[in-house]
Design brief:
3-stranded parallel beta sheet, 3 strands, alpha/beta, 4 helices
Amino acid sequence: MQVLRTPTPDTLTRTARELVEDWKTDGVVHGEVRFTPQLHVRHGMTPDEAVQAVADGLAQDRVTTGVRPGLLLCCMRHQSPDESVAVAEPALRHRGVVAGLHLAGDETL
């Protein structure tokens, strides 16, 4: 698992690319990335920039590795409906690369 202390578009792209490379090494042919783009807003990115950065990284080695990556955006259970819409909107704008939405978080909430 890659941990980013201060994510930037470049580090998100690099991490996504390296994940695809690791999947290839592990014999994975299809993998899905789930992440919460709105968490990167506090680091100065827009949700769209975060989504694009991850999508770019996933796509970079797709041809050479043969791995088919999927991208899911996470809505968090503790968020308000408006915050969930703020995740769904970039998913729609990037529907060519976003496979779907994922509901994450504590199920007891």
